[in-house]
Target: ABC transporter
Amino acid sequence: MLSCKELSVDVGPNGPRILDRATAQFKGGALNAVIGPSGCGKTTLVKAMLGILPSEGEVSYAGERIYKSSDLQGMLSFAPQFSIAHERLTVNEALQYALDLCVRDGVVKAKRIEEILKRIGLDEHRTKKVGDLSGGQLRRLGLGLELVGDPQCMVCDEVTSGLDPKSEDQILEVLQRLRDEQEKTFICIIHNLAKLEEFDWITVVYEGVVIFQGELEALNRYFDIPDALHLYDKLNEHDIEYWRERWKGSDTDVAVHSEIAAVKAPPPPGPIAQTWTLLLRRALLFKRDRGYWLLTLGITIGFPLLVTIFAWDGIPQLRGLSMDSSAGFMERASEDLRYRIDAMEMASLVTGLILFQVILLTLMGSNNGAREIAGERQLYEKERFAGLSAGAYASSKLIFASSVAILQGLWMMLFVRYICEFPGVASLQAGVLVLCCVSMTAICLGFSAIFDSADKASLLSVYLVGFQLPLSGIVLALPEALVWVCRPFINAYWGWGGYFSSMLETRLYDAYRLESSEWIPSAGLSLAVLGLHFVLGAVMVFWGCQQKRWN
Ligand SMILES: Nc1ncnc2c1ncn2[C@@H]1O[C@H](COP(=O)(O)OP(=O)(O)OP(=O)(O)O)[C@@H](O)[C@H]1O
Model:
């Protein structure tokens, strides 16, 4: 079934070799165990075979060479060390969404979900939230999630580790029944050597090298031990070179299994159907995550309120200045010193208020995007391995986060404009504020797709927001040489400029011009630059989602 030849994994170009010329063959329609002391390279071996880790050497499945993970799609599934599913979904929902991402045919899906629930013994727990399951139930759900695509072969990393004996037996029973009734192949990394008699074929890995393959009896004979529990003591008696050479020179024939033909499941649904499924699941998870939606709602409503609080004292004068530009205004301003000072103060208040709106929108953008992908990266990697398209995933994240950002930008514009009676072209202001929030959301989503840790992505997003004010050069003067190095990348500058330009035909704009003659970008240019920021963010999201980020 699955086999590898001279497979090696190095950590980085000059790093240590953590898998060294491993050669192994796993048995089809059987329970295969992979054992070895902790840290010996079991996970590395299976991940290298599945194309999850870059490696040198050959991998084959049913006699066909495998070059990348996607070559195994529809034939093999992988259950990583820690079962992963969204904690806020019920067992039924987790399985249903996994099926929707993996299987096209509605009748097959309805039948399969019932079969899986019964097989993994979670039928009566189908309405329980994943987060409320016990360790054993969680592992069984993990298995159920691997079964949705009906793969011929399943690789399970420590599917029984850390479980009580009863739960361990339950899981092994599920695997054995699947082997006997459906000829499924399992390759399981296990730690409990007392359970080896339940397995048909055993692979021993030691210090990154495969040093034995065979049945339990042959293992006991080969290592000259009374039972498998003595294996690790025996391994310690010699160094790795001894064991490597002994296995190389041994006449044990591992090519004993007749090759089973590959069976490939039908292709998964197309990217549009997968995007739709992911959007539905994201909306449900958003609704269930009370803390997150309360925070999002809180900042969406609270931030515009904050802006108007800061505007409060100046609102009466603001209203006086906000009418359309009328003839004689400039003349009057230049004659009347008092009026001129008032106008300049108003212009500086408005500058601050616009900047404040824009900065708060970038903060909302960082909240929308920074944790979105990195926070569920392992789940995504697992679903991608099972057939989820990276493009569908990236699109669903962009659509969902941008929808939230559009609402936030619109609400900020409407609320502040109404309370402060800001003049200017409403559609331009809405466009600029919405795009400010959406583009920052996309950039932070990009960080979330590029970095493997949600904390790193959040930290970078917070720094980016923190630098908006000083690097925009609006309130604090930037050194001349830096102005046009920084500004093209500073969301807040274009948000501010675009908004200010929407007031071109008003007294406020003229009042600002009394104080400053600096160039202000037009609303059109600002919208174009913010649009480019969004495109950059979207490219980062698509590129980041294409990369492999397994733990
Ligand atoms: N990215 C990495 N960088 C450096 N060392 C690594 C990396 N990944 C794994 N290793 C090292 O390679 C060795 C094999 O790791 P692996 O996870 O394959 O072991 P394992 O046998 O599955 O361990 P366990 O049974 O404890 O899960 C370990 O010493 C581990 O520290």
Notes: Residues 11, 18, 36, 38-44 surround adenosine-5'-triphosphate (CB under 6 Å). The chain has a mean pLDDT of 89. The chain is about 55% helix and 10% strand. Residues 321 and 334 are 15 Å apart (CA to CA).
